[in-house]
Specification:
The structure holds 2 protein chains of 2 kinds. Chain A is mostly beta strands. Chain A contains no helices and 11 strands. In chain B, 0% of the residues lie in helices and 55% in strands. In chain B, a hairpin with a 6-residue loop joins strand 4 and strand 5. The chains are: A mainly beta, B mainly beta. At the A-B interface, strand 4, strand 5 and strand 10 of A face strand 4, strand 5, strand 9 and strand 10 of B.
């Protein structure tokens, strides 16, 4: 596709449920990033992939968060045993290298 | 540590100019500017690289003071479509990865 796509766009989960968020980057983009954006705040870095290698996961808030990109293209962010503080918009971005990052529309996660 | 943006909010009449500032305490390699409308993905506007190189939007200009680790975004002859929240994202010199650290945002509203 022409841009970064994410699915689902909206997800409501009961506290304690597991969720999986998908990101389809722009074709050919080597780098892929996940960010978390709380209401009224700027995006905060979660993790970074270069091809299939997860080079930085320092922003993941707890071991309940896990991300993968097994074939160097599509990526999945998984959150286990969701808690209310996990409610946020999860943004995915991709880039060719060190320059501009192109963002997807995000997945709005609401944990009840 | 996230960069500091100022002002936090600004209201303009169509045709007026605005300046948005972004300041970091770290030595920066690059500054990236994005605009985000409510419920949408952040859209890339401009990247300023250490050494003076710029890439971005034709009708928007920006500066990067490497000594002060500050960047300013200049919006001239504002249009209604300029409304949204502007974020600066910074990449530090010692950042081995390519992730961005975003400021808290500047909310811009352009009125007719």
């Amino acid at each position: 596709g022409a841009g970064v796509s994410q699915s689902p766009r909206y997800k409501v989960a009961k506290r304690g449920q597991d969720v999986a968020l998908r990101c389809d980057p722009i074709s050919g983009h080597v780098s892929l990033f996940w960010y978390q954006q709380a209401l009224g705040q700027g995006p905060e870095f979660l993790t970074y992939f270069q091809n299939e290698a997860q080079l930085d996961k320092s922003g993941l808030p707890s071991d309940r968060f896990f991300a993968e990109r097994p074939e160097g293209s599509v990526s999945t962010l998984k959150i286990q045993r969701t808690q209310q503080e996990d409610s946020a918009v999860y943004l995915c971005a991709s880039s060719l290298g060190k320059d501009e990052q192109f963002f997807g529309p995000g997945t709005r996660l609401t944990v009840l | 540590q996230q960069p500091v943006q100022s002002p936090q909010a600004v209201i303009l009449r169509e045709g007026e100019d605005a300046v948005i500032n972004c300041s970091s305490s770290k030595a920066l390699y690059s500054v990236h500017w994005y605009r985000q409308k409510h419920g949408e993905a952040p859209v890339f506007l401009m990247i300023l690289l250490k050494g003076g190189e710029q890439k971005g939007h034709e009708k928007i200009s920006a500066s990067f003071n490497e000594k002060k680790q500050q960047s300013s975004l200049y919006l001239t002859a504002s249009q209604l479509s300029y409304s949204g929240t502007y974020f600066c994202g910074t990449r530090a010199n010692n950042n081995a990865g390519n992730m961005l650290t975003f400021g808290g945002g500047t909310r811009l509203m352009v009125k007719p």
